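can u do me a favor
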């Protein structure tokens, strides 16, 4: 895609390894929403906390696609195997640690899951077959997305296809329209009383693609991106509030029609709201721009955001332990239990980040560093 230049003639680029504070804040918000969704202490947040998953999806699409775009612009090429290996060093160590610990605990407590549940977890198709945990399906969706994104990027780049901006946007819009149709078709196939499926990749890929569209917009059309998302916080907050209200209204409505609307369009509204949030976070600036007194509120969110992956992975395991203790001391389901659950999840996430993720990321940079500038077609 051809890059749009700003008034100075320079394309707006992300600041390399420089972390975006507002993006980390959104990660923190996303994981806290998920934690709220899995605990009954705050009913409203429990009911709407599932949108944290869509926020994670949009963030993943934006950040991972941004890595692909940046590598192509930096090196005039793209190395799919190296890219997937680098992602694997980020994702797999903590994930397989969770599966190993879970297997040991299940064996120790006498719980017996079918072997296929373990296989589904290990090979990332637990969003099509029952796994060991109720939240790891999101990792399967993201893994499938990474693979599809890499295949598409490698095919287009190696075949020297010049995908124009309008073609890229049109392709994204086509998927945005097709996925709700697939959800509608899935709804029609249900037996009476059967719940719709919300885990399969082909029914949720539009959320991740929303992040891809944002990343392409940010990299290749930075002038219009910042024109939309910079300095319009009131308007964007109104749009975001309206979308979230629609999600909550359609979710809480009891009649069949609005229940169907929730499944078909409520998920779309959730990821569009997440796109607005991510676009606003990126368009408003980078780390270091948040000033007092807001900084005292944002710093904890940024910290949670930086450990969000491991916090998300371990939070249900932590919840099991917290609930066992809470039953004995009589605080089960209370706000106090919720606060203990949140704090313990963050502590576990921080420990796993420092003890597992960081060492493997160091190994990644040692053995699979970012590619240098090379000619197209070289391996």
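np, heres the sequence
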């Amino acid at each position: 895609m051809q890059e749009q230049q700003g008034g100075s003639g320079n394309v707006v680029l992300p600041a390399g390894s420089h972390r975006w504070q507002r993006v980390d804040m959104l990660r923190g918000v996303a994981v806290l929403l998920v934690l709220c969704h899995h605990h009954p202490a705050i009913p409203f947040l429990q009911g709407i906390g599932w949108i944290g998953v869509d926020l994670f999806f949009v963030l993943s699409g934006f950040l991972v696609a941004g890595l692909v775009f940046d590598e192509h612009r930096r090196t005039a090429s793209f190395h799919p195997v190296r890219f997937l290996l680098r992602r694997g060093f980020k994702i797999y160590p903590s994930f397989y640690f969770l599966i190993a610990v879970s297997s040991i605990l299940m064996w120790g407590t006498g719980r017996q899951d079918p072997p296929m549940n373990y296989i589904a977890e290990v090979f990332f198709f637990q969003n099509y077959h029952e796994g060991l945990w109720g939240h790891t399906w999101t990792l399967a969706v993201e893994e499938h997305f990474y693979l599809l994104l890499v295949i598409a990027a490698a095919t287009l780049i190696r075949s020297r296809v010049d995908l124009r901006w309008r073609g890229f946007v049109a392709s994204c819009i086509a998927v945005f329209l097709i996925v709700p149709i697939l959800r509608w078709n899935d709804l029609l196939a249900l037996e009476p009383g059967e719940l719709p499926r919300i885990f399969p990749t082909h029914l949720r890929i539009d959320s991740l693609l929303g992040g891809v569209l944002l990343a392409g917009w940010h990299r290749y059309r930075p002038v219009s991106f910042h024109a939309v998302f910079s300095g319009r916080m009131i308007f964007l907050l109104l749009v975001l509030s309206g979308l979230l209200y629609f999600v909550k209204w359609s979710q809480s409505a009891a009649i069949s029609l609005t229940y169907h609307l929730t499944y078909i369009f409520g998920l779309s509204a959730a990821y569009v709201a997440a796109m607005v949030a991510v676009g606003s976070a990126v368009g408003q600036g980078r780390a270091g721009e948040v000033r007092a007194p807001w900084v005292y509120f944002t710093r904890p969110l940024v910290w949670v955001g930086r450990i969000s992956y491991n916090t998300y992975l371990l939070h249900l395991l932590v919840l099991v332990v917290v609930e066992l203790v809470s039953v004995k001391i009589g605080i089960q389901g209370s706000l106090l239990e919720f606060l203990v659950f949140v704090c313990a999840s963050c502590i576990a996430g921080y420990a796993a980040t420092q003890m597992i993720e960081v060492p493997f990321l160091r190994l990644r940079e040692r053995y699979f560093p970012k590619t240098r500038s090379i000619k197209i077609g070289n391996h």
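The radius of gyration is 21 Å. hope that helps!!
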